[in-house]
Amino acid sequence: MTTFPNVLPLEGVTVVSLEHAIAAPLATRHLADLGARVIKIERPGVGDFARAYDHRVDGLASHFVWVNRSKESLCLDLKQPAAQEVLLALLEKADVLVQNLAPGAADRLGLGFEALSAKNPRLIVCDISGYGEGGPYTEKKAYDLLIQSESGFLSVTGTPDEAVKSGISIADIAAGMYAYSGILGALIERGRSGRGRRVEIAMIDAMVEWMGFPLYYAYQGQEPPRRSGASHATIYPYGAFRAGDGRTVMLGLQNEREWATFCARVLDQPALAGDARFASNAQRHTNREALKALIEETFAGLSAEQVIERLDAADIANAHVSTMADIWTHPQLQARRRWTTVDSPAGLLPALQPPGMGPERPARMDPIPALGAHTEAILAELGFGERSAALRAQGAI
Fold first, then answer.
1. Buried b / exposed e across 214-225, counting CB within 10 Å, b at 16+?
2. pLDDT for 341-366, tens place per residue?
3. What is the reported pTM?
4. Rounded distance, CA 99 to CA 197, Å?
5. Which of 42, 139, 238, 335 has its CA 20 to 30 A from that of 266?
6. Which domain holds residue 277?
7. pLDDT at 226
8. Crossing angle of the two packed helices 170-193 and 23-33, in degrees rounded to 10
């Protein structure tokens, strides 16, 4: 097995982030995974409001634990000029600023790209917002569920009777990942040009990009994909089927060859492949309820594991319907050594290596910071050490 020196690609890059919730913190956590120094600016005494979402991880919030490892926490009350002075001193030496403050807040603080670039031409500024700059929605509040709705995602997700949101913060995650890739691209560009640039990420843009398939499927007024629960909207059989032990198996067929194999080797009904009701995917989709009944009639005499054994033997794509408890002990994650640990104010916690990195080339996995854990050290580094007591007394830090 090839081994690599553990030199991470973003070592030496400093990222300052005015962040809260998920989108910006997820982007900067990925930058930290690759070795960047990420300094998280938090409000004194309160911090990122995601710290208080819940207390499920040994007293820490689940969202916060997920997206904030390997960061330094610097408390600054940016409403106070003395705190702004500290931040501007920090940005003069930084490589990247990321912010997902309320619309217009960064500009009011003098943190727009044009103003900052005049003092630090190499600075990359990534602005994350709900609807982007310009247009009638610029000032609208934009939470994850609202963007799921506004982007059309809810129109294709759920059951025929009810629209259902994603069980995770998919709009925040989409925006965070585009911010991450946009910053990486800007760093490469800066390596050629010597200058930073602005990266603007709107949650609505990220989610509509991910809606490309249903958009084109409904091109020029054609019928959009129907909400189909856990089944595929346009391919059948492709979705969830109940086995005889009450558990559910997910399976998917992609072509006519697989359909014939499925009938012969999984259902043990080879003649079904020639049934006119199911002779093509379009026909199977039209007659999906009748076909579902036939499939589950066979599955009723089998356990979920027996169904999966038949599907595997026939080389038909399938999956367990895993619970959160299943994922903690998933055999594939265990076999590939995807789990490691990260320190936190609550002690050591399990953590997944980020995709693309692992035991042979591990990511940076430094602690999840306590609120303000690095304030004094960063102030000293910037030359504000002798003023720290006064700054704290006036509530600036």
1. beeebeeeeeee
2. 999 999 999 999 998 888 888 999 99
3. 0.89
4. 14
5. 335
6. 238-321
7. 86
8. 50
CB 13 within 8 A of CB 37: yes
Residue 292 C-alpha from the chain's centroid: 33
Cα distance between residue 382 and residue 376, in whole Å: 10
43 and 74, same domain (yes or no): yes
Going by C-alpha positions, the residue among 113, 182, 85, 101 that lies closest to residue 142 is: 101
**Residues 70 and 107 both lie in one domain:** yes
SS3 143: coil
The residues near 150 (Cβ < 8 Å, ≥ 6 apart) are 142, 204
Which residues of the chain register pLDDT less than 50? Answer: 1
- Looking at the fold, whether 30 and 89 belong to one and the same domain comes out as yes
Q: What's the chain's Rg over C-alpha atoms?
A: 26
Residue reference for tokens 């946009």:
182
Does residue 118 share a domain with residue 21? yes
Q: Three-state DSSP class for 73?
A: strand
pLDDT at 5: 60
Sorted by sequence, the CB contacts under 8 Å of residue 110 that are 6+ apart come out as 84, 88, 116
What H or E segment, with its residue span, contains residue 244? Answer: none
pLDDT at 361: 85
107 labelled catalytic: no
Q: HSE on the CB side for 343, CA within 13 Å?
A: 7
